[in-house]
């Protein structure tokens, strides 16, 4: 089990290597998770990043949908009980 943040989600959409690694390990049974807020952040920041690269954001919803099929979104209710302890580390 591997938990990813928004930066990794963004790299999975902007580049090839991160997406390839996720797909390779997922096919070997590794489960990937990301907080819902990470998907929200990626959705917020990707349009500007794509524009900077001269790329269209038209495919962004389908790209994020694909990531959600490989990376399981996690709601805050699932991890909020552990947040205080995690922040102490």
How would you summarize the topology of this molecule?
Elements: E1 2-3, H1 6-14, H2 17-27, E2 32-35, H3 36-52, H4 60-70, E3 71-74, H5 76-79, H6 83-88
Parallel strand pairs: 1-2, 2-3
**End-to-end C-alpha gap:** 20 Å
Radius of gyration: 14 Å
SSE class:
mainly alpha
SSE pattern, N- to C-terminal: EHHEHHEHH
Question: Which residues form runs of ≥5 with pLDDT under 50?
Answer: none
- What's the structural domain tally? 1
Structural account:
The protein is mainly alpha-helical and 89 residues long. The chain has one domain. It is 65% helix and 11% strand. It contains 6 helices and 3 strands; from the N terminus they run βααβααβαα. It has helices at residues 6-14, 17-27, 36-52, 60-70, 76-79, 83-88; strands at 2-3, 32-35, 71-74. The protein has a 3-stranded parallel β-sheet with strand order 1-2-3. It is globular, with a radius of gyration of 14 Å. The chain starts with a strand and ends with a helix.
Describe, in short, the structure shown.
With 89 residues, the chain is mainly α. It contains six helices and three strands.
List keywords for this structure.
mainly alpha, about 90 residues, 3-stranded parallel sheet, globular, 6 helices
